[in-house]
Amino acid sequence: MIQVGDYNKFKISRKTKIGYYLDAGTGDTKDDILLPFKECLEKEFEADDEVIVFIYRDSKDRLVATLREPLARVGNLAYLKVKENTKIGTFLDMGIDRDLFVPLKEHKYRLNEEKSYLFYVYEDKTGRLAATVDVEEHLEIAKGYKIGDEVLGTICGLYRSENLIIAIEDKYKGIMLKNEYFISVNNGDKIKLKIKRIYEDGTLGVTTRVTGKEERTQLQEEILKYLEANGGFMPFNDNSTPEDIKETFKASKNYFKRALGGLMKKGLIEQDENGTKLIK
Prior knowledge:
Blueprint: E1 7-15, E2 19-22, E3 33-36, E4 50-57, E5 63-66, E6 77-85, E7 89-92, E8 100-103, E9 116-123, E10 129-132, E11 150-158, E12 164-168, E13 172-176, E14 190-198, E15 204-207, H1 212-229, E16 233-234, H2 242-249, H3 253-265, E17 269-272, E18 275-278
Keywords: DNA-binding
Domain Conserved virulence factor B first S1: 4-67, 75-133
Protein name: DNA-binding protein
């Protein structure tokens, strides 16, 4: 059986002016599949030679073969770039002559042209290749990771709760809680993360945050730089709102207060009801 959207092995049936025809195995030459010369990567074949090719459908719904290596296959997750948004859906660069289609119903969030996102590739009811951004159910449960491991994750689901679904190494299921990041994030972004916990079902809980001591040191340096750049004063103190602190310093109020406390113990700053001053 021919697997559309995947690699298949065929015998060369015959050579024509436009390319080689591959024996589809039905006994009817009308079913033979074209391997165009432009898809042969300058390789030449003889009748009965066996070739392994990728099969897809062209714009006229005909099966076509290529020796080019696609960026995605049916049943796989793939990080692909958006080429064009249209009224009927989105087209992705698949690395071959045919673009990969994302129907509008498979848009769970906005897809920006020239940006890459993680997609799941499938064969639709018509036998054509398609993709969806709804990848969560296709992520695997990871094995072999431990708490503290550094990983690369792709953001593939931003929920109203602000918790993030993360595809670890574009393959494994991860989640990042809203209190584990204080940076601006968007679907499709790739970010360096650290495993903070492993849930009972195997989902990896990740964070952008470094260790508490390292984070406080970094935050203290940022506070001092901010004070120096603003005449030695800032309108932030222990009573500032979490929202103002997050917007300015990309940190939680708890870490901010700890950082201020450390600087005060060192005699570098002082606080009052108006804010914080740098001690000269």
